[in-house]
Write a structure and sequence with these properties.
Blueprint (H helix, E strand, L loop, with lengths): L1 H31 L6 E10 L5 E12 L3 E3 L1 H10 L3 H21 L6 E5 L2 H5 L3 H12 L6 E6 H6 L1 H13 L3 E7 L6 H5 L5 E4 L1 H4 L6 H16 L3 E4 L5 H9 L4 E2 L10 H11 L2
Parallel strand pairs: 2-4, 4-5, 5-6, 6-7, 7-8, 8-9
Antiparallel strand pairs: 1-2, 1-9, 2-3
Helix pairs in contact: 3-5
This protein binds ligand C2E and calcium ion (CA) (3 copies).
């Protein structure tokens, strides 16, 4: 009985600590959204599997909190989504990313595109299409140089609504990639009917390459799907030469991962591009 009471106390303390931590993180996030100065976009090079040269970049947000230090997007993006704060945050990411792409152009670094992650909550926001139009106009980026990374769950959830919204983006000339493909349970005929231009093989498949037979089978299935649907193909999370060799032999056109580079600051990206651009 005594133990029972103690363990009840223990759990309730732990739970309330968790609730407090979440509430504190939420208030810190609201504060950070006042001027965005604690946020920074990092960039991970996307590399041609053929040449090993950088062809594009993916923007990945970082949050430098004055006390908590670097907070991982895996921790604060879900919270920002839950609180609806992803809408202003995502708008900032889109603006900053397009501006940085244009700065690269001014420096003579012409990349094929910049990829920006867009949350389901942003896509569902009725103001998002006009936000996108405004950012395209104000940044001056060619729409074809902007690729939005959407999740597979977005197209799986409400295919009809997704198709309509994605078509709006395609009509403007923006490219669309399905991120983390293979983890979101979308039906093949759903994918086929979506106006997307690329699929990204999830890291969890790449991890098992080239030895694990399930990973090999799944990767080959996604490669042939991309070929048949005439979609560009990126593999993420490439960490070893053996993974690269396998993906390159399978004719996956674009690869990214720690084998080439971790996500880096804009200044480091400039250096990386100068050293590794065709
Ligand atoms: P994601 O879009 O799937 O991004 C890939 C994640 O894997 C990134 O983590 C990247 O740093 C990491 N990564 C890349 N290559 C490797 C590798 O070779 N090995 C390993 N172990 N990891 C690798 P990160 O930057 O922590 O981002 C986590 C997730 O947070 C992203 O997953 C994305 O879903 C979300 N996220 C990041 N930035 C944004 C953003 O601006 N907007 C939205 N909506 N979501 C974002
Ligand atoms: Ca992504
Ligand atoms: Ca991904
Ligand atoms: Ca992933």
């Amino acid at each position: 009985k005594e133990n029972g009471r103690n363990s009840f106390c223990f759990f309730s303390k732990e739970l309330s600590a968790q609730v407090n931590a979440k509430a504190e993180l939420a208030s810190a996030l609201r504060h950070a959204l006042k001027d965005f100065s604690e946020f920074e976009l990092y960039y991970q090079p996307k590399v041609s599997a053929d040449t090993g040269k950088v062809v594009a970049v993916e923007a990945l947000i970082r949050w430098h909190h004055p006390c908590l230090g670097l907070v991982s997007p895996a921790r604060f993006i879900p919270l920002a989504e839950e609180l609806g704060l992803i809408v202003p945050l995502g708008e900032w990411v889109l603006e900053q990313g397009c501006q940085d792409y244009m700065r690269l152009c001014e420096l003579g670094i012409r990349l094929d595109h910049i990829s920006i992650n867009v949350s389901n909550v942003q896509l569902d926001d009725d103001a998002f299409p006009s936000t996108l139009d405004r950012v395209l106009r104000e940044s001056g980026i060619i729409p074809d140089a902007l690729e939005l990374e959407i999740t597979e769950s977005y197209i799986a959830r409400q295919p009809g609504q997704a198709r309509e919204r994605l078509q709006y983006f395609r009509d403007r000339g923006v490219r669309l990639a399905v991120d983390d493909f293979g983890t979101g349970y979308s039906a093949m005929n759903t994918l086929q009917s979506m106006p997307v231009t690329r699929i990204k093989i999830d890291k969890s498949f790449v991890d098992g390459l080239p030895c694990d037979s399930n990973s090999v089978a799944l990767t080959r299935a996604v490669v042939s799907l991309a070929k048949n649907f005439k979609l560009a193909l990126t593999a993420e999370g490439v960490e070893t030469a053996a993974q690269l060799d396998f993906l390159s032999a399978e004719k996956c056109d674009e690869v990214q991962g720690f084998y080439f580079s971790m996500p880096v600051t804009f200044d480091h990206l400039i250096t990386y591009c100068r050293d590794n651009k065709a």
